[in-house]
Design goal:
D-Maltodextrin-Binding Protein, domain 2; 7-stranded mixed β-sheet; Arc Repressor Mutant, subunit A; alpha/beta; elongated; WH-like_DNA-bd_sf; DNA-binding; 3 domains; two-stranded antiparallel sheet; transcription; 324 residues
């Protein structure tokens, strides 16, 4: 088993370096030794792993599958080594998180401090969620936990686990004293076309919100809204809404614990997408103490805030009585 792992890690180095020569220099081994490692793996698995060309080598389709598994095994090996060293040295364990903007701004700031107090030797690395790469990154062990929307979990391999904590709703949002609230009729629902009388802000940090504004809103309103501001930062988008007459489609969870002028959902039949939210991780990590404590902290956070799994989330009243 150890011999096989050694050969697999050598294969990873070959692919990452792009050539046998550079990999041999990196590992301080001879090229024939690396060639023999590749041959042994190919004999064991029954398929070619590498394609050779003038510039070096690159993995075959099957080789990429093997490499993905190797990277996952490499990360698990690293975590096991960190656990063993933690008992006798000052080596720090590392938890790698990739999170969407709502988790980075609202959820994780309340969780990571207490988690760090419980695990003083833990180093936490937090990066922005990258929709095109995130699922691949967590599968291959480049990150440990993906925090955000769970819309694509059905496409993940069975080796991946997920935990749903709540559902967030996309709502048309404006500041609480926005003049459009004075135009809500007795029915309590603002006619959608009224939104065309005000400037719009488009949050571009997640492509889905651009699509909702560009397509869903246009289809529902009959023409394209007057987009005055495009903003990639969720925090900046909220701040602009607080200081202007702009309206925007945003997740309702972003309105919780917001300092400054309150923002509230607009009672209008537009922007009602319901999105599950939680975490995704590799199944072999389930018993790793930092992860189990992170999951417990998430459950406590959403339970304390009143967010529940059936999709109900606390927001300010969505009624005409809340208008100025």
């Amino acid at each position: 088993m150890i011999d096989l792992m050694t050969h697999l890690f050598r294969l990873q180095a070959i692919v990452e370096e792009g050539s046998m020569r550079r990999a041999a220099l990196h590992l301080n081994l001879t090229q024939p030794a690396l060639t023999r490692s590749v041959q042994l793996i190919e004999e064991r698995l029954g398929q070619p792993l590498l394609e050779r060309h003038a510039r070096g080598v690159e993995p075959t389709a099957f080789g990429r599958e093997v490499l993905s598994s190797v990277m996952r095994l490499s990360r698990q090996w690293e975590l096991a080594e960190q656990e063993l060293l933690a008992a006798t040295t000052s080596a720090k364990r590392v938890l790698r998180l990739e999170a969407g903007p709502l988790w980075r701004m609202v959820v994780l700031p309340a969780i990571l401090g207490p988690l760090k107090e419980k695990h003083p030797d833990l180093r936490i690395e937090l990066t922005n969620l990258r929709p095109a790469e995130s699922s691949k990154n967590v599968i291959e062990g480049k990150i440990d936990v993906l925090c955000g929307g769970l819309q694509f979990v059905a496409d993940l391999p069975p080796t991946m686990q997920h935990r749903a904590f709540t559902h967030f709703h996309d709502r048309v949002t404006a500041r609480a004293d926005h003049p459009l609230f004075a135009r809500i009729p007795k029915s309590g629902q603002l006619p959608p076309e009224v939104l065309l009388d005000y400037p719009w802000l488009v949050y571009t940090g997640d492509p889905i919100y651009e699509l909702e504004t560009a397509h869903a809103a246009t289809e529902r309103l009959g023409r394209e809204p007057d987009v005055r501001i495009s903003c990639e930062s969720l925090a900046s988008a909220l701040r602009v809404l607080q200081q202007s007459n702009c309206v925007s489609i945003l997740p309702d969870g972003a309105l919780a614990d917001l300092s400054g002028p309150p923002l509230v959902p607009v009672p209008v039949s537009l922007g009602r997408r319901r999105a599950p939210s939680g975490v995704i991780f590799r199944e072999e990590m389930l018993d790793w103490p930092p992860l189990t404590d992170l999951l417990s902290a998430c459950e406590e956070f959403f339970g304390t805030r009143g967010y529940v799994l059936d999709g109900t989330a606390p927001t300010q009243p969505d009624t005409a009585e809340a208008t100025p």
